[in-house]
């Protein structure tokens, strides 16, 4: 019963998140909103497995993309939004540098 409730909440949160991404502007590619709306703050996804559970719902949440990789989940708690936005900027900058490096290689060849 617990996991069924949890799963339905996760699915509805996922659908809301997808709808929000569709309606949000294309300029915010791959980043969260400044208020962190993409992450629920009511503890829905705090403890992903209970003691003695099989861990199956966690796998489902991972497949749905609801478990964020990286520093967002430090000890099961979301980091402050400004830290998370810095982390996203660093990742984006690294991707741009790598893309530029690849383009340089293509130009040389």
UniProtKB/TrEMBL annotation:
Region of interest: Disordered: 16-109
Species in which this protein is naturally found: Rhizochromulina marina
Regions of compositional bias (Low complexity) in chain numbering: 55-64
The protein's name in its UniProt record: Uncharacterized protein
Biased composition (Basic and acidic residues): 100-109
Basic residues bias (residue ranges): 90-99
Comp. bias (Polar residues): 24-33
């Amino acid at each position: 019963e617990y996991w069924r409730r949890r799963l339905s909440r996760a699915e509805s949160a996922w659908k809301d998140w997808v709808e929000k991404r569709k309606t949000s502007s294309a300029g915010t590619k791959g980043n969260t909103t400044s208020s962190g709306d993409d992450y629920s703050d009511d503890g829905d996804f705090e403890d992903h497995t209970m003691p003695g559970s099989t861990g199956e719902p966690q796998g489902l949440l991972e497949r749905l993309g609801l478990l964020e990789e990286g520093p967002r989940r430090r000890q099961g708690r979301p980091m402050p939004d400004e830290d998370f936005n810095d982390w996203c900027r660093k990742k984006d900058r690294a991707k741009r540098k790598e893309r530029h490096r690849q383009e340089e290689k293509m130009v040389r060849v």
